[in-house]
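User: quick one, sequence for these tokens?
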């Protein structure tokens, strides 16, 4: 499958930091899907490979039930092995053209970009969408570089593929992204750090639809 712009409207990225003791990601992810998340990315920095694979397969099954794309962060080999819908890589990860060769023409390729130059290179290398940020200060990624909103607008104008804003996005600050040209937002704590994940997802989606 290839990505449709509307599938990027509310892009939820997992983080086991928010799990309660003994809880797995299945429950929170299903609540996000019920609330209207349009894409799920598994981002896993702590699990060993075997556990990561099992977890990814479970979440992939959930996403298929809800007909929502399932993306693996960074781990290209795992994404190919389990037949995930796609993979997302950062600038410090494998080069986008090499990733495209490994995953083939039919899987989704997302690439992080902070500048117009990075965005154009990623598009030329076969990226289907870009993740641009951090558009606000964020605690989810220690090394996140802030991208001014003017640069976000310039990237959206420079490329023909859809752009997702990432980093520090909350229900309150979504309206600040109005007019930027983005296709949607990518969040972690604004969904998975909330008491009622389903309701938080629903409210976020409505807010994004109003803003864009």
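Assistant:
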């Amino acid at each position: 499958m290839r990505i449709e712009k509307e599938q990027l409207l509310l892009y939820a990225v997992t983080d086991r930091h928010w799990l309660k003791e003994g809880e797995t990601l299945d429950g929170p992810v299903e609540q996000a899907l019920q609330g209207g998340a349009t894409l799920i990315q598994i981002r896993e920095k702590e699990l060993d490979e075997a556990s990561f694979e099992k977890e990814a397969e479970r979440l992939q099954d959930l996403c298929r039930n809800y007909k929502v794309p399932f993306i693996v962060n960074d781990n290209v080999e795992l994404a190919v092995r389990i037949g995930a819908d796609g993979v997302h890589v950062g600038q410090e990860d494998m080069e986008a053209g090499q990733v495209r060769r490994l995953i083939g023409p039919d899987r989704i390729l997302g690439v992080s970009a902070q500048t117009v130059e990075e965005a154009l290179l990623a598009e030329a290398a076969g990226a289907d969408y870009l993740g641009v940020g951090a558009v606000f200060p964020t605690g989810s990624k220690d090394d996140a570089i802030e991208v001014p909103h003017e640069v976000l607008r310039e990237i959206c104008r420079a490329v023909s593929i859809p752009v997702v804003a990432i980093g520090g996005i909350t229900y309150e600050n979504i309206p600040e992204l109005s007019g930027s040209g983005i296709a949607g937002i990518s969040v972690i704590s604004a969904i998975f750090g909330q008491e009622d994940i389903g309701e938080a997802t629903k409210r976020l989606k409505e807010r994004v639809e109003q803003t864009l």
